[in-house]
Write a structure and sequence with these properties.
Helices cover 34% and strands 16% of the residues. It is α+β, with helices and mostly antiparallel strands. The strands form two sheets. It has a four-stranded antiparallel β-sheet. Strand 5 (138-141) and strand 6 form a beta hairpin. The longest helix has 17 residues, at 2-18.
Length: 166
Amino acid sequence: MAAVGRWRRLLVAARVAARPPQNYCSSSSAASATYPGVVESTEEFKFVERLIPPATVPVPPKHDRYPTPSGWCPPRDPPPDLPYIVRRSRMHNLPVYTDITHGNRKMTVIRKIEGDIWTLENEVKDFLAQTCGKTPMTQVNEVTMILRVKGYFDKELKSWLLEKGF
């Protein structure tokens, strides 16, 4: 609201500054003849266009070798032939996140799953049982297609999904 008020004050000040000086001795028709009116400039709009954010995230550029220095890898060009797919986020990252609920319950969340989520859950359990030595507790949400794993396993699951080709 403060920004709207500031712009309104600037517009009013611009209108007052653009008015021709009022000369009480001359007629009003002479004053309106010198008033320039409104001039629309399209040349300066290029400076405004730079400030407008793009509508979509651009496609990442091709690199000589992967992983890049930041650790990013693209998905395999033909996606893996599995009964499920894990789509990338809009910033082209794997949708594996950490979450804390109820103050101290540490969870790892895999989002953007399409297909057979139950097969993915079984494969995640097998992978983490081999890695950690015990089978972690998991929760499947079929409506939102989210898989939750108890504990922080984000690095392991991201590397595992990259190896699978997602």
